[in-house]
Amino acid sequence: MNAYHREINSNPSSLVENGKLQFGCYNKPMPKVNFLEAEKPYKLPLPRFLKSLQLREWQAFQLGNKDYFMLVAIYDAKKLSLVQFIFYDIAQNKKLKYEKKVPSWKLHVPNGLDGTEASYESKDFSLKARHDINAGKLELEVDIKGFGKLPDVRGRFRGHHFVDRYEPMVVCLPFSEKRAMYSHKCLMPMQGDLQIAKVQRAFPKESSYLIIDDHKGYYPFPTRYDWVTAAGYNNTKQLLGFNLTDNQVLDKERYNENALWLDGKLNPLPPIKIQRPKGVEKDWLIKDEYGMVDLVFHPKVNTSVDVNLGLFKSKYRGPYGHFEGYLKTQDGEKVVIENLLGMGEDFYLRV
Fold first, then answer.
1. What is the pLDDT of residues 134-157, one digit of tens each?
2. Alpha-carbon distances, residue 300 vs 72, 95, 131, 274, 346 (angstroms)
3. Strand, helix or coil at 54?
4. Integer-rounded Cα radius of gyration of the chain
């Protein structure tokens, strides 16, 4: 079996240079995320505000420890925008879902992670993510009060976003010559506190984690992708996690965002395929063609969203569960995955 290698390059000074997208895979933050300067992503020259209307952008965070998993999202697809906080108690197999569809102009997703803030704020629902990547700081705040019949939530979390210690996977991946997606994903230690109703939970740095996804893209119409991710600490207390995606990117051998993080080191992984022989709610099989990825995902709690309004259609499946199997580093080290909590997505969007 041939070995797999994907080049990890020195990052350019900006995502777009002289109108051209800088396709590639990098392990340092993008200094300037200037997606709207890309020339003619839709063939005809468009004013900046029309290009912005087509650009989907979000910041999402998976965070937790061995007992709890949380998902925070500030998602702006312009025509469909939402904010979300999900809390999952692993032992009790209990999920609390706070979600609100909002007008695009009421939330903010910034360009880059240098002194920026992603946010949404209303009287009953507030999410804020503050970034100072040069100082290794990521501050995440959740405040939700009086939201239907759900208990109030207050969370304060600090991600240790030191990219020299915890390498990110930063990509600009082509859907066509002039359309692409950008993502900055990084697994790091996290510490913080969460209060739901009157119950306080602490998240110590030595046992808690956070994955960030800072994301923008001119996505295909319609959009389809499969995605799985998980994180935690192994038996030797090393921080361990992975990100695996099968999407509509061109030349996936060269351009993908698949990665294994082990004790802060980034290991690129090959293209993968996900099979669900018994459906989304049963086991998912995740494999590559190089013998570096062989995982089974066991869904435990399922999330689904279906919308069909003619021209607009969305079909989403996003279960939480545990992963078993193995991954391999670039050096061929076999990393056994045992009962690692994470999530998957089976996604279709026509908008």
1. 999 999 999 999 999 999 999 999
2. 19, 11, 33, 17, 15
3. helix
4. 19
